[in-house]
Amino acid sequence: MTVPEGRKLYQQIANAISKAIRAGTYQPGQRLPPERELAEEFNVSRPTIREAMIALDIMGLVEARQGSGIYVTHSKPAEQPDDLDIGAFELTEARRMFEGEAVALAATTITEPELAELSDILKDMVDENERDIAGDQADRRFHVAIARATRNSAIVLVVETLWDLRYKSPLCRNMLARGRAVGVRPLVDDHVEILEALKTRDPRKARAAMHHHLGTVIENLLIATELEAVQRAQSEVAARRSELARRTAL
Predict the structure, then answer these.
(1) Which ranges constitute the DSSP H helices of the chain?
(2) Which of 60, 68, 149, 175 lies in disulfide reach of 106, CB 3.0 to 4.6 Å?
(3) Average pLDDT of the chain, as a whole number
(4) pTM, to two decimals
(5) What are phi and psi for residue 69, nearest 5 degrees?
(6) At 148, is the pLDDT very low, low, confident or very high (cuts 50, 70, 90)?
(7) pLDDT over 80 (residue 133)
(8) How far apart are CA 215 and CA 92, in angstroms?
């Protein structure tokens, strides 16, 4: 299956599947091929397929069913809107690349006061997690503080821009909200490892810690979006059981 040019990769996949549904290749109620098959068919990664499926879900064209897969729910989908913007997987992949190099540079320039600031921010992160505060502001402050420790204003701008996209992109916000709904929170232990690596002033160790952290974020989002579908199905089953109990009690 071919995809159109000029759009973000997940949009290309979602648009191609949308057209296939319109053409009758996939009928309402029919299960789409598994993620791995779609990834091979379009020659893209699993996260890209997951972003496309979530975009189609947001548009009301497909739905996830527990232990079964993704099913078509509409036979005449509209064109995919551009305002879904960037997804959380694509954004985190970019962060992994840029912030990995940023933290490596910071390891050679960071000061003791800046290390102390990161330690204080970690305490705020723990507090936000315990109080279930959305927005991950302490998380953002931690990563931006590392960028500032590089003494490079362009790096700071890039890191801040990537973080701001988390809040501006409807698709990214939706994906992160799905993750939070099933318990995904900022990974405090990962941030502790990053801080400890910075304290050693070892660029390779700092880069590895950041790459591990953001790789784990991607994996957790994959798991979270799977769990979200499972929990939604479980809620539907619970509702049906409740309705059945009510009816049999009449």
Answers:
(1) 9-22, 35-42, 46-58, 88-109, 112-131, 137-148, 153-168, 170-181, 188-199, 203-248
(2) 149
(3) 82
(4) 0.68
(5) 135, -160
(6) very high
(7) no
(8) 8
